[in-house]
Write a structure and sequence with these properties.
- The chain is mainly alpha-helical.
Length: 180
């Protein structure tokens, strides 16, 4: 592990620290006065932080002249490509029908959330829904690329392959409960 690798891991740690100790408490304080603006502020903060970490990771990969294949960023081909396209299209069609039905609805619908604290984060208006989709896509790309794969790759370089499997086994259950 090189010095830039350690600096990148430190940047990830600083980002997580800022999220937990700065963004979240500020959001809770702001949400008491104006929940809508507080949500937009939190979501934009998350997206900025995530994409800065992605940009730093890409810069590290370019600086170190590493092969992109080590991140497994290869396009699928053959049956995997067509299978992935089919699955994504089915998912898009399923969600598009739901989104169109909600968008065409004239009356506001209240959905009871399983966790009462999720209500603070969930979008409440159509414009917030667009921001929510952007945050969701950013989180999906950024977390998988540079938190799950890169971090577990660093652990495996330092501690062996068993550490990578252990890291991934801790990562998955941690995120299973946060999916809404």
């Amino acid at each position: 592990m090189t010095t830039p690798d350690l600096l990148y891991l430190a940047l990830i740690a600083i980002g997580l620290f800022l999220d937990y100790f700065v963004l979240w408490p500020t959001f809770l304080r702001r949400s008491q006065a104006d929940p809508g603006r507080a949500r937009l502020w939190l979501w934009s903060g998350w997206m900025i932080m995530l994409w800065i970490l992605v940009a730093a990771g890409v810069a590290l990969w370019l600086f170190e002249a590493r092969a992109w294949e080590s991140l497994r960023l290869m396009a699928p081909h053959g049956w995997r490509l067509w299978g992935a396209i089919g699955l994504v299209l089915m998912l898009v069609i399923t969600y598009a029908r739901t989104v169109v039905r909600i968008a065409r609805s004239k009356r506001p619908k209240r959905i009871k959330m399983g966790n009462p604290h999720v209500e603070k984060l969930a979008p409440h208006t159509r414009s917030e829904l667009g921001w929510w989709v952007a945050v969701s896509l950013s989180a999906g790309v950024c977390e998988e690329l540079f938190f799950a794969d890169t971090s577990s790759g660093y652990f495996s370089q330092c501690l062996g392959c068993g550490a990578r499997l252990h890291f991934r086994s801790l990562y998955l259950p941690q995120h299973m409960h946060t999916k809404v």
